[in-house]
Structure formats: structure tokens, C-alpha cells
Amino acid sequence: MLDWNDLRYFLGVADLGSTLAAGKALRVSQTTVARRIAALEEAVGFPLFEKRQAGYALTPAGEELVERARQVDAAANAFAEAADAEKRAVSGIVRITTQEIFAVGLLGPMLRELHERHPDILIELDDSQNFRDLGEGEADIALRSAYGDLGSGVVGRRLGDDDWTLYCSRDYAAQHGVPTTRAQLKTHAFIGGGGPKLWRAYSAWLHELDLDDRVIMHHASAMGMMSAIRSGLGIAVLPAIVADAEQDLIQCVPPKAGHGRSMWLVTHERVRHTPRVRAVIDFLYEKLTAHIRMLEEKRAAEAA
What we know:
The protein is of the alpha/beta class. It has 3 domains: 84 residues, Arc Repressor Mutant, subunit A, CATH 1.10.10.10; 103 residues, D-Maltodextrin-Binding Protein, domain 2 (3-Layer(aba) Sandwich); 88 residues, Periplasmic binding protein-like II (D-Maltodextrin-Binding Protein, domain 2), CATH 3.40.190. The chain contains 12 helices and 12 strands. The strands form 4 sheets. A 5-stranded mixed β-sheet has the order 4-3-5-12-6. Strands 10-7-11 form a 3-stranded antiparallel β-sheet. Strands 1-2 form a two-stranded antiparallel ribbon. Strand 1 and strand 2 form a beta hairpin. The longest helix has 30 residues. It starts with 5 loop residues before the first helix and ends with a helix. The relative contact order is 0.13. Keywords: DNA-binding, Transcription, Transcription regulation. This is LysR family transcriptional regulator. It holds the Pfam family HTH_1. InterPro entries: LysR-type_TF_proteobact-type, LysR_HTH_N, LysR_subst-bd, WH-like_DNA-bd_sf, WH_DNA-bd_sf.
């Protein structure tokens, strides 16, 4: 079988006229060059050189093939140069924006492998409460929840429904039980907060269920609420894509159907083809969809 690496030795001997000179040029021994030429001749089925006292001379068949070998060598060099250029392009800063709970509970565990795959990319992860405008270049990639239109120039991939519902810890459930009805919810302690945007929707929902007076603590972030739930302090709303992966958390009631929110991984059309941005989006989409499939399989197993 033909070994393409042997073409280097073929060209070295053809250009320099001896295995000794080719070996010096290629920084290998004369014996190695002679052995690789012999292997190449065996692979093609005919001699490529005549061995003379003055050195190696191409046979007529060798003369016919030497230019083809140069074309292969040129193509291989061009491939290597293109690969190096691509590697240099997949470097630099990529700014990702999302809510803190997704940054810490979802993306955080994935970033080590992202670094291992693309060590020349520097990730700036923004988990502030402020909305970052992709069109204005305030971030390169966003993992966000959206209803319908993503915004002008924003493009992305839908990951699935952005379900949020109530969770408690296993310790809390062992002490107080798991509420599954509206009446049962009124006998339990709730943790409020989660940040201004989340709290607006969350507090309205609690008010609708007449649970305002059941809130015993406010946390400034959703990660704070998760910490309080883990401690067994009470019940709070969390995103299913994060909480359902936590072995210590129990979903109290199913997520509300028909809410219309979807989770999207998005960027702006002006940077979508930038190699470093594309590399990060492709990686995150691969990992996030695998995470979602794992949760679907876990739910199916628990329901069986």
C-alpha cells in the first residue's frame, strides 16, 4: 500500500541524486531513505531509480511520475498552510452572554472541554442582569429565552422549550412532603427573588396563586434561590434544563404548557461566519443538545 510520506523521500533523491544527500536534507539516515524508496517502488510495482556509481538516476517511469509527486507535495503543503491559517483564525476573544443560572449551572461545566478543543480562544462569560445587544457588538453569542422574533440580524438555533417550574430538595421533601396541588402549595415555604426580570414574572405567578405571604426569603439571583433550595429552606422556581439535572432536586409540579418561551443559542449575522465564533457556537450546540437529550431520556426512564 502506498505511503504518501514516501513521496518526500522520492523527491529528495530525485532532486539531490543520492540517498545520502536526501537523508541530510530530510534529517534522517541514509538507510531510512533507501528503505523508504524501496517501499515506494514495491508499492507502485516498478523501479523509480537506476542505482549508478555516481548516484541515483530516475528511470523513465520515475521521470513520468516526478512531476505528479511535486503536485502532491505542493497540495500537501497548501493543506498544511490552510490548516495553520484556520488554527490562527480560531483564536481570540468570544463574548457569551446569558443569565447567571445558565452560565453557572449549564455552560460552566462545558467550558473546560471547550478550552481543550480550542485553547487559543478566550471566553468572556457575561452573566449580568443587563440585556446585551448582539447587533451593537456588546456580545458575540447569547444563550437566551425568547418569544417568537429574535430581533433584527440575530440568527441562531432553537434548543427547545424554556420550561421553569417549582423545585425542592430531597431533604425538604422528606420533612415536608412534595406539594402537587394548589391547596398543598399554600402550606409550604417559598424562596423569592431571582433578579428583577425573573421576579416580575415569578411574583405575579405567586400572587395569582395567593402565595405572597408564603415567601420567607428573597435572593438577588436564581443561583441564590437554587442554593437556598439545596439547603432545604423552601421551594422556588428554577429552569428545568438546569434543575432536572440536579440529583438532589425534585420537581414539584410539571412546567406550565403553552407558555411560548424557547431557549435559543444565537449570534448576529455580521459575526456568524467568524471562525472563532462559529467554533464556539458549534461546540455549545453539540453539548447543549446532548444535555437536553440526556434529560429527556432521564424523564422517560422515571415515567416508565
